[in-house]
Amino acid sequence: MMTEPSSATLSRAQLATLAATGEERTAAAGEVLFRVGDASYPLIAVIEGEVSVSDVNGREVARYGPLAFLGEMDLLSGQTVFATAVASRQLRYVAVESAALRELMSEDGPLSDLLLSTFIARREALQQVPGVGVEVIGTRQGTDTRRILDFARRLGIAFTWRDPDSDDEAARLLSRLAPDEVPLIRVPGGRELRGPTNGELSRALGIGLELEPQEDVDLLIIGAGPAGLGAAVYAASEGLDTLVVERTGLGGQASVSRRIENYLGFPAGISGTELSSRAVAQARKFNARTATPYRALALEPGEDRHVVRLDDDRAVRARAVLIATGADYRRLDVPDLERYEGL
């Protein structure tokens, strides 16, 4: 079973707050509340009864009783569900849909602190459970395999990597594929991707917004680090149609920092994951849209509208463009450097 704060509980007042926002429901023993591969699920706060959560192989990873709540970071990101929840006893609970939950968290600080810190800890714990999340099948030497693994780590996606050099079944699966179909990705729910781009994987998991071939907005922000997300909050809260694009994951480099102690307003420090999650939730509260991973390729200034060309044959026309791309690490000028990255 997961060594994470599955025992985190709500106060009676917090349960009442959730009940006022959500809907009270019941479930019989053995009834499935959500399952691996589902596109979404609500926050579940247990009033009476018990819920068992298991991985794709049916192994129990957590159990929740009265005043406990079910959920992790996929509730806020929209990511495909990685686990299955079943009522192990007659159940009475409160269900709060994700959109309503995000709005509530932006207004109730103590409740937000409890939920968000628990969601983050649960995601980190899930990443340590074998067999949970995305299955990546590819060789250590494969550039595309390392790219996918690095992308998954940056976005905090739980994954299992199967190396054909040490896994006979993985070797057999890859023997049927062409070189450009590697790595083979198995997404929760049964879907398989062959040699996907980062964007294809992201959208298969329900994380990334897929843009139209041409978008028209008031403000386009390039870069979704703290600066870009902060600008999105200010602009969207003033009623501007705001779109944020990012080439990797929301939060930028800050999202992978273990601890940030020089950010205004957090004298005790805050983890990069929590800071990024709070910023994204706040931006979405004001209807700012976020799209990843899209790389900005060119800027074409105009009189009334500026056009930004993105990869994947997308274009955005915006009245204003804010560039918040931040810093990028320098790379050693060494031949075949990418072969040694991620080892």
Structural commentary:
The chain is α+β, with helices and mostly antiparallel strands and 343 residues long. The protein folds into 3 domains: 12-126, Jelly Rolls, CATH 2.60.120; 134-198, Glutaredoxin (3-Layer(aba) Sandwich), CATH 3.40.30; 214-323, FAD/NAD(P)-binding domain, CATH 3.50.50.60. Helices cover 28% and strands 25% of the residues. The protein contains 9 helices and 18 strands. The protein has helices at 12-21, 74-77, 98-107, 109-126, 143-155, 168-174, 198-204, 226-237, 272-285, and strands spanning 23-27, 32-34, 43-48, 51-54, 60-64, 69-70, 84-87, 91-96, 134-137, 159-162, 184-186, 192-194, 214-222, 242-245, 289-291, 296-300, 306-310, 314-323. Strands 15-14-13-18-17-16 form a 6-stranded mixed β-sheet, with helices on one face. Strands 1-8-3-6 form a 4-stranded antiparallel β-sheet. A 4-stranded antiparallel β-sheet has the order 2-7-4-5, with no helix packed on it. Helix 8 (226-237) packs parallel to helix 9 (272-285). The longest helix has 18 residues, at 109-126. It is globular and about 60 Å long. Keywords: Flavoprotein, Oxidoreductase.
Globally, the shape reads globular
- CATH fold description of the largest domain: Jelly Rolls
Return the CATH class of the largest domain: Mainly Beta
Q: Strand sequence of the main sheet, in spatial order?
A: 15-14-13-18-17-16
The residue-averaged pLDDT reads: 90
The topology string of helices and strands comes to HEEEEEEHEEHHEHEHEEHEHEHEEEE
As an assembly, this protein is single chain
For the record, the CATH architecture of the largest domain stands as Sandwich
Q: Determine Rg (CA atoms, Å).
A: 21 Å
Poorly predicted tracts of residues = none
- Tally of alpha and pi helices: 9
Helix proportion range: 25-40%
| Strand runs, count | 18
Keywords: Flavoprotein, Oxidoreductase
Protein name: Thioredoxin reductase
GO molecular function, one term: thioredoxin-disulfide reductase (NADPH) activity
EC number: 1.8.1.9
